[in-house]
# Entry
Amino acid sequence: MSSEQTELERDISDKVDDVVEPAHGVDEHPAGDHKHGLTDMGYVKVALILALMTAMEVTLTYLHLPGKVFMTILLVLMVAKFWTVVSYFMHLKFDNKIFTRLFYTGLLLACFVYLAALCTFQFFAPS
Amino acid sequence: MADIAAPTTPASEPDTTAAVALGVEPDIHGMVPTPGAHDDHGLVHGGGDHAGGEHGHATSTGLSNNKLAMWMFLGSECLLFGGLISTYMLYRGRHEGSPSPSQLYNIPLTSVSSFVLLMSSLTMVLAVSAAQRHDDRNTSTWLTVTALLGATFVGAQVFEFTEFYHEGLGFTTNLFGSSFFTLTGFHGVHVTVGIIMLMALVGMINRGKIPGNKAEVVEMIGLYWHFVDIVWIVIFTLVYLIPS
# Structure
């Protein structure tokens, strides 16, 4: 009885491990169990890049570029800054993919819903 | 299960008497599951040392439930700010009775405050890094610097609001004013809440009263703070740099 029980325990334990065992890119030691991400100097470099992109954005507003070019560059810089902060400072690049999916699901849902709402109000229609 | 909880249980095995008394069935390893620790197959994951930090709570994903909840919360916050930004975009041209957005906005001031908030994200991530090294002194220092930078940002926002009010733009002046103050005000409230959380965290670290995994708590507040920063990245571009 005892050996049967031990065998059963081992079998269940193996199955549980199969379920829990992380796939590629999954962090086995979440949230503070160990250090993950960049080094401190790496974070400083990322912050300098972000500061540079902000400086570029502000400079663009004084250059009087054509509207579409100005808008496109600004939006690309905005998305790049957003992605940089989310990926490096919020550690999404190094963390479990579930967190990425949770966050981007909310973000994409918001974008879809409010773009649809803006279209309903003919926001993008030429005036 | 009753025999597992019997008083004859060896000292090396976990005592599950209290769990049985509470009506919670321990698993085959004698671990008591935390709520939500069952997987799709109805199995209870014993151990769960990876999740939940020092408490060792079992989770069905093997990940920290706190962190999952925080990311879900941030995903839902995207919907809140998406609504406020969309409303502003719709009403930014309705500025009857007040100067237009391009006349009102002080881009140099807003650029400096944006830079300050961006740098506060750097100090926040340095605080998280220090917490992961179990370096309490640097963690407290970077958290305090983050709170000070956040306070500077809020101060600049209050100054900006006061200037706008003197120029004739109040909350109820027109639709532009209402949507602008609601959007930036909500963001300012988020920053203020973040500052309060940071200062509370510094106090708790200094008194050694952080429950559970300290690095995880710092990381949770860090996630909130970075989220506030990314929302400002969007507001700065869509509201201030593309005013019309």
Q: What stands out?
A: The CA atoms of residues 5 and 33 of chain A lie 33 Å apart. Chain A touches chain B through 64 residues (CB under 8 Å).
